[in-house]
Amino acid sequence: MSVVHHQPDGPAFDIVLILHVGCVVVGLTTTVASALSAGRLRTLLRTAAPFPEAVGRYFRPGVNWAGRTMYGIPIFGFLLLALDHGSYGLRDGWVMGGLAIFVGVVLIAEGVLWPVERRLQVSLAAVSSGGVPAKESLGRDATAMLWAAVVILALLVAGTALMVAQP
Questions:
Q1: pTM for this structure?
Q2: Does residue 6 lie in a domain region?
Q3: Are 101 and 123 in contact (CB under 8 A)?
Q4: Sign of CA dihedral 112, 146, 74, 4
Q5: Residue 130 has what pLDDT?
Q6: Within a domain: residue 120?
């Protein structure tokens, strides 16, 4: 028998929910951009075509701060739990499942996606200043970035489905 929870409401809860969902949307968007950029780079490397300005702009050196908005997902999630007046709990399976999925997202993003992205930024900056990095390492890094982004996307979609269904 399933337990029916009272749906929390109120302006504070609604604002935090919007921020929580906003972090998910930005996380999905930035991860799609990472996957598309890595895929485009792989294609350009195979064809030996010059890099378009958009690829150079994406791989401009710097921290992917937009991607880091994913850290807002659990922060606002915990705030939602605090504002729900006991409707949900940390021990609920869907909450624990969401946290486990988020841990996976962070491990892949911090362990693979963002470090590879930084390596590509450095390598492509060297290309634009006349250096010649190994084409194999660029291709390997672009492939790693693409697959890391695809796995993160799958996890974010699974986490979103879990949060919506709340089984």
A1: 0.88
A2: no
A3: no
A4: negative
A5: 60
A6: yes
DSSP assigned state of 5: P
Q: How many domains does the chain have?
A: 1
pLDDT, one tens digit per residue, over 51-96 is 788 888 899 999 999 999 999 999 999 999 999 887 888 888 999 9
How far is it, in rounded angstroms, from Cα 117 to Cα 165? 33
3-state secondary structure of 8: coil
Which amino acid appears at position 36 of this protein? L
Residue 159 lies in a domain: yes
CATH code for the domain in which residue 103 is found: 1.20.1420
Task: Specify the 3-state DSSP secondary structure of 59.
Answer: coil
In a domain, 3, yes or no: no
Q: Is 156 exposed, middle or buried (0-12, 13-18, 19+ CB in 10 A)?
A: buried
